[in-house]
Amino acid sequence: MAAEVKRDPDLEWLDHVQPVGLVVAPIVLKELGLAPSRQTQADTAIVVDQIDADSTKPALREPWPFFTKVLGWETQHVDGCPGGPDLPGDLYVKLPEHDTTLSPTWAVRELDTGDQRWQLLVRVEPPGIDPDARGAADGWEATPHQRFERLLRETGVFAGLLVSEKKQAQDGEDRYSPELRLIYAPRGETSGHVTFPLRELGTVAGRPMLGGLKLLLDSFRLFADASDRRLPALLKKSRDAQAAVSTMLAEQVLGALHDLLRGLDAAEPELIRKLARSRPEHVYEGLLTVLMRLVFILYAEDRDLLPSRTDGRTRQIYETSYSARGLYARLSEDAALNPDTMDERRGGWGRLVALFRLIHKGHRSHFVQARGGKLFDPDQFPFLEGRADAADPLS
After folding, report:
1. CA 8 → CA 30, 31, 211, 298, distances in Å?
2. Which of 27, 100, 115, 212 has the greatest CB tally within 10 Å of its CB?
3. Residue 344: which region, alpha, beta or left (left: phi > 0; alpha: psi -120 to 50)?
4. pTM for the complete prediction?
């Protein structure tokens, strides 16, 4: 039988919020023991009460009650909210070159004493505004999302929540798609964001996402938890963890390239050494492409995107005969049983080559759909298959 893919229930919500770039790293959540609270029917009912069920109308009748009732925010902690303190002038950023002034709708206070006064800026766009549409607002033609990122970087707050309700024509009617977009845009680094679709939060299927939203943005996380577990710390620790992982991966990639080169040289020394002398950059690009192929495959397998068909028999064939994850498990088991003879094994590389070709060309039964493109094209780097050039038959 095909191996069952086990997912961490504490991280399930991250699979549903459409992450773009890095905002919160799963490893940081696990290290700190942060897991979403299980959401009940009562929690869902609170969300439903704040959202208009008619998709032809804006979902949020009033934005602020959603934050008070669902996330537990209080007026004394949020400048600019109804009944709260006024927004200070230093949160208004003038861009004379664009004849535009950027500003948040609310600003969430940092309660700890220190140089940083704010944890989070919130921008509530008018209903119907597409956060990713250029020219959606007066003045500067940048998208509302780009404007908000600029505001975060200019004010030095870096974390923000963009509330929007994009309007789209469906079945002859305008329908609203409300969302909460948590953005992290530290100065000098690439930004990232995660998007919580509002209407889905009021459904049974959306409870994991609702739990994830509260994990990051409820009143306890923002105002009551220890400083190293609150939102600003989580965002910064996630970037620090990414930097550490990137350094480690760079070392591992270099080691993997050396191992792969040694293996190919042992299998076809004359071909590999001739190429290394005449076209070293081609050899390097080919070796790196193998690693990129494996990353693609492991990512797809981890998310059940391979094989293309999902019936039990198909999965069994794929796992036992093609899967990169299955090959790794088998090699690991063999290495534990026969550590001294692993260099004498044959067949593992051939299985990978077959998988690469299967993904590129597909199968007539649609067992695996053809992907085409350059990444898996066997003729881009024929030396990986023991061929001198694309015209040579397979050895």
Report:
1. 10, 14, 14, 17
2. 212
3. alpha
4. 0.68
